[in-house]
Amino acid sequence: MAGRKEKEASRVSLGALIAAGMGAAMGFRALLREKVSFEGRTVLLTGGSRGLGLVMARQFLQEGARVILCAREEVELARARAELEGAGGEILALPCDVSDRVQVEALVAQVHERFGAVDVLVNNAGVIQVGPMESMTEEDYEEAMGVHFWGPLYTTMAVLPEMKRRGWGRIVNIASFAGKVSVPHLLPYSASKFALVGLSDGLRMELAQDGILVTTVCPGLMRTGSPPNAYFKGNHEAEYAWFILGDSLPGMSMNADRAARKVVEACRRGDADATLGLPTKVAVWARALAPNMTSAVLAYVNRMLPQDASTDRHRGRDSETPLTRSWVTNLTRKAAQKNNEELLH
Question: What CATH number does the domain containing 182 carry?
Fold first, then answer.
């Protein structure tokens, strides 16, 4: 009789432990999926003067957030500020090179002085260098790492003390499809985005205990209008042609407004990862499930690309040809005009 009671008590205790464990797991899951409002929040957006950064800034403003833009190009930054101020909302636009820690610390100090602590940090600043491996120099890799790895690390370290003090914060790192599947003729870009993915995933694990959720975003091609401002080496006209044509295809590239909405929603929920676009998801799955086949396919793609080893660097806008000026790139050109990517003479 005593043994039966002990067994029943043991079952009750085990059931209670299981229930408590399930409750804790559900509570932890709820914490990680807590939807938030951006009304009255302070959002710091790097690379916010054009492209995806500017599109996200528009959407955060529509949500009622206070938005701080930073970028290296002061003329572009001024145009972005003028547009956003015209639409209403609180805007602060500050020049900053995120690869320079001193500039980043000064930027965050100015934000604290004007708005207080940063609630949401979006690391979006980027640089793209396109060309074969032989055309790339150490400086190309240093530049890519400075913007894509050290920049997000510097900004994160600058905003963390206040986020930890308050026990709340959101950090969004805009990585890339090329940070999960290395792409031919984008080696500095891919290597630095792989570094950012590793940093972002690790930060997620270590900062969750402080109430700070880190989201890693890996988009594929987006029609932000960025090709005219990317850098091209080797046979720069041919490199620009394949890059802008891929960027302009609706099936291959995602509309910038749609991509920005997905980023903002992932930030709202505190998602760990947001991989944007069906082609991107298929490529990531293929790389995980069939790495040899994926590598062979990309090696074949590489053989089809231009192989000029010239190290001269040209902007996309300086690499135009009749093909890239034709109707086939209309979607990218419209996006460039809309998102402050177009050179104004």
Answer: 3.40.50.720
